[in-house]
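Recap from last week: sequence in, structure out.
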Amino acid sequence: MQTTIVKLYSLEYKAAKTYWTAALFVLGNIALPQLCHTVHLGGPTWLPIYFFTLVGAYKYGWRVGLLTAVVSPLANTALFGMPLAAALPAILLKSVLLALFAGWAAARFRRASLVLLAAVVLAYQVVGTLGEWAFIGDLQAAVQDFRIGFPGMLFQVVGGWAVINLLIRK
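Predicted C-alpha cells:
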C-alpha cells in the first residue's frame, strides 16, 4: 500500500489567500446545497452545507474553516431562504464546531485519514446535537442529523477524504 503525501496548511487572517480560499469554499457550500435541495429532503439527508467547511478547515486550517462556516449558512439564507432563519443558530453552531475540530485534527495529526475524518464528523455532530437540544429544547428534533443525515455524514467522511487526498493534494 502506497502512502500519499498531503500538504495541510494553516493560513493566517492577515493573508489574502485565506479570504480567497474561504470564498471558494463558501461558493461550494452555496452550490452543493442548491443541488441537494432539488430532491426531497436533500438538505437534511446529505447535510451539504457542512461539506466544504470540513474540507476547507482540514486542508487550509481553522481560520479558512471558520470563515466558511459562518459565511456559508448566512449567505444561503440571504440568497435562497434555506436554511430557514430559525435553524441558523444550530447550523452555525455545528459549522463552527466542525471548522474548529477539523482544523485541530489536521494540525494535531498532520494527515487526513478516513478514521480521523470520521472522528471529526462524529465529534461536531455529537457536541452540536447537544447544543441544538439546548437551543430548541426538543431532543427528537436535535437528533435529526443522526436519524436522517447519516448518508450526509458518510459523504462528508468519504467525500472529504477523497477531495483532500486526491483532488487538492498540493
